[in-house]
Amino acid sequence: MTEKIQVEDVDVYVEGMGDETIVMVHGWPDTYRVWDKQVEVLKDRYRCVRFTLPGYDKSKPRRAYDLKEIVQLINTIVDTVGNGKPVTLMLHDWGCFFGYQFYMNYREKVTRIIGVDIGDAGSKEHVLSAKVKAFMFGYQMWLAAAWKIGGKLGDAMTRKMAKLLHAPGEPGSITSSMTYSYYWKWSHVLTGRSLDHLPLEITCPLLFMYGENKPGMFHSTPWVEKIASDKRNRVEPFQTRHWVMIEAPERFNNIMLDWLGKKD
C-alpha cells in the first residue's frame, strides 16, 4: 500500500512498514519512479520514501530552486517521515549532490548512504582529461541553455540531450524545467560565485555503486580508494552507463540488500 503525503507542495510517497526508513532522491531527468525496481524488493523489510524533485514535476509551476532550498526540503521530508529516527539515504545523479549536502549539514539524521554513480565530482582530486572535460562542459551547458530558453524549444533541447545520454525516463515527462540545476551551477561558476556547498566528507557507512561504461567518472580514484578502505563501506563498479539501478537492477538489488542487511 502506498501512502501519499504533501510536504511543501511536493508529493511524497511512502511504501513499506519496516522500522528503518530509506529516503530516495533521484537526479536529472528522472522522477521518483526511477526507484521502482528497488522499492519492489525493499518494501517488505524497509519503509521506502521517495518524491520527485521540485521543478521536475511538469504538472507544477516552472521555477528554479537553489541548493539551500532543496537541502531544506529534504530536511523537512526526513523530519516528517523519519519518526524521530535517522534515515538511510539512497541517491543518484543530482540526488547525490543534494543528498550529500543534506548529510553534511545534518549528519545526525543519517545512519548510512547508498550513493549511485556520483562521488566527489568537482573536488581537487577529481582530475579529468581535456576530452572528458569538454564533453561534460558541453552537455551541461546545453542543458543550462535549455533552462534559460524554456518553452517548446527548451523542452526539445532537453529531450534531445536525454536521448543522447541514454536517459531511461519517458520522453513525455522530460522538460526544460528539470534543468535548473545546470543553469544554477554554471551561472555561479562562470561569474565566479560560490556554490555554497560543503566539501564532501562522508563518515557514516557508504555503499557506492557506479557505471564504468561512460565517457568519464564522477568520482576520483583517491576518493573511492578511501571509501573502500573502511570495512563498513563497499564499492562496486558495474559494466553499465550512468543509470546503474535501471541497467543492472538484479545485481544492484542483490548488493544493496546484502549491504543493508549487515549491521555495524
Automatic annotation (TrEMBL):
Q: Which residues form the AB hydrolase-1 domain?
A: 21-143
Q: Which Pfam families match?
A: Abhydrolase_1
> Which Gene Ontology terms cover its molecular function?
catalytic activity
Source organism's superkingdom? Answer: Bacteria
UniProt cross-references to InterPro entries, sorted A to Z: AB_hydrolase_1, AB_hydrolase_fold, AB_hydrolase_sf, Epox_hydrolase-like
Name of the protein described by the UniProt record: AB hydrolase-1 domain-containing protein
Write down the species.
Answer: Shewanella sediminis (strain HAW-EB3)
The top of its lineage is: Bacteria, Pseudomonadati, Pseudomonadota, Gammaproteobacteria, Alteromonadales
